[in-house]
Amino acid sequence: MSVEPILSVENLSVRIAGLHILQGVSFDVAPTGVTVLLGRNGVGKTTTLRAIVGLTPRNGEVRGTIRMGAQSLLARPTHRLVRGGLGYVPEDRCVFAGLTVAENLRLAERRGTTPAYDKVFALFPELDRRGRQRAGSLSGGQQQMLAIGRVLLNDNRLLLVDEPTKGLAPKVVTEVAEVLERVAESVPVLLVEQNLAVVRRLAKDAVVLSAGRVAWTGNAQDLLLETALTKSLLGVGSGEVPASARSESGLRAPQSRAKDGAA
Ligand SMILES: Nc1ncnc2c1ncn2[C@@H]1O[C@H](COP(=O)(O)OP(=O)(O)O)[C@@H](O)[C@H]1O
Ligand SMILES: [Mg+2]
């Protein structure tokens, strides 16, 4: 990478409960745009994000180097990392179901800063309209918007977003992808995403994990053209986007980019 990465992971090793999940993972995240972290289920994508943000379980062991700019992140407490501009949208969304939307947002405000409600409500007008609704009664898509909006209240130097479209209807997948696209114009994103149509739309760079290591890095659009590679590394051909995702989500079908001989 010719420009300085915003995040640099070197030789990251994570063991949890006797399992050696990450066995020397190294990759960079570009200072602009979306870098996507890919790999089959259970390969360690969430474990990677959690190690970056300091949320490895207590019975886990983390080794290696993680740097954001000149700063070393390992061994720093999560609240410090977040205050330093590392935003994390976890896989399971983690909104407070019993609290209202407005209360969920208020809890995310960082002391000593001015929360960017205008920006968040411009991206997600529904969060403004549904301020008094209990978060537990929101749809999956609305909860995802709340989980992302909450992080965007504060200034971030880098966002980590874990499978934001998982389990969502195709129309909502498109909405989430549109929001992430706009967000990534101003802050770099490390995104875990299984929906290859979303990857195609958003990602500039790709990192693929396999068997505890990095199996491939490079241009995300190049990776998606390599059907044999995506099949062996991800278990799917890049052309295998469900018809529903093509027609309803408005996302470009991968076949439209396939060049001769790629399949
Ligand atoms: N807290 C934990 N205790 C035991 N095993 C775990 C824990 N967290 C993750 N694992 C295991 O580590 C592997 C990687 O998990 P994960 O990072 O969640 O994968 P991915 O996000 O790529 O689907 C899986 O085999 C999972 O069962
Ligand atoms: Mg995961």
Automatic annotation (TrEMBL):
**Keywords annotated in UniProt:** Amino-acid transport, ATP-binding, Nucleotide-binding, Transport
What SUPFAM superfamilies does the database record attribute to this sequence?
A: P-loop containing nucleoside triphosphate hydrolases
UniProt cross-references to SMART domains, sorted A to Z: AAA
Residues annotated as region Disordered?
Answer: 240-263
Q: Where is the ABC transporter domain?
A: 7-236
Highest taxon of the lineage? Bacteria
Gene Ontology MF annotations: ATP binding
Question: Would you identify the family this protein belongs to, as annotated?
Answer: Belongs to the ABC transporter superfamily.
Q: What is this protein called?
A: ABC transporter ATP-binding protein
Q: Which organism is it from?
A: Micromonospora solifontis
Top-level taxonomy: Bacteria, Bacillati, Actinomycetota, Actinomycetes, Micromonosporales
